[in-house]
């Protein structure tokens, strides 16, 4: 049992993409979102703006096939095409 808990804890710390809690809806760009982790905050909204998203609200999920995710705000904003570098 301890081994399972240790593995889950390690995976949660190593993979920031597993922690995405929601998405910011980008105004003026239909089906365009920015993923964020944890609670919504002013700092995360500012990071989303750096990706080119004027935040219009939040939603719980942005995993549909027709959604375009500009970047993830799990720390500093990182465009998804460069996310493999910081993992």
Whole-number mean pLDDT? 75
Distance between the termini: 27 Å
Largest sheet: 5 strands, mixed
Number of domains: 1
DSSP E strands, number? 5
So how many helices?
A: 3
The shape is: globular
What share of residues are in beta strands? 25-35%
Strand-helix topology:
Layout: H1 2-14, E1 20-26, E2 32-37, H2 42-50, E3 55-59, E4 68-73, E5 78-79, H3 83-86
Parallel strand pairs: 2-4
Antiparallel strand pairs: 1-2, 1-3, 4-5
Can you describe this structure?
- By secondary structure, the chain is of the alpha+beta class.
- The protein has one domain.
- Helices cover 30% and strands 30% of the residues.
- It is built from 3 helices and 5 strands.
- The protein has a 5-stranded mixed β-sheet with strand order 3-1-2-4-5, with helices on one face.
- A hairpin with a 4-residue loop joins strand 4 and strand 5.
- The longest helix is centred in the N-terminal third of the chain and has 13 residues.
- It is globular.
- The two termini are 27 Å apart.
- The relative contact order is 0.22.
- About 9% of the residues have low confidence.
């Amino acid at each position: 049992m301890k081994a399972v808990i240790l593995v889950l804890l390690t995976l949660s710390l190593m993979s920031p993409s597993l922690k995405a809690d929601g998405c910011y809806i980008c105004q003026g760009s239909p089906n365009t979102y920015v993923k964020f982790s944890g609670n919504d905050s002013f700092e995360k909204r500012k990071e989303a703006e750096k990706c080119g998203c004027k935040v219009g609200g939040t939603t719980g999920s942005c995993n549909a096939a027709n959604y375009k995710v500009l970047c993830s705000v799990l720390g500093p904003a990182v465009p998804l095409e460069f996310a493999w570098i910081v993992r």
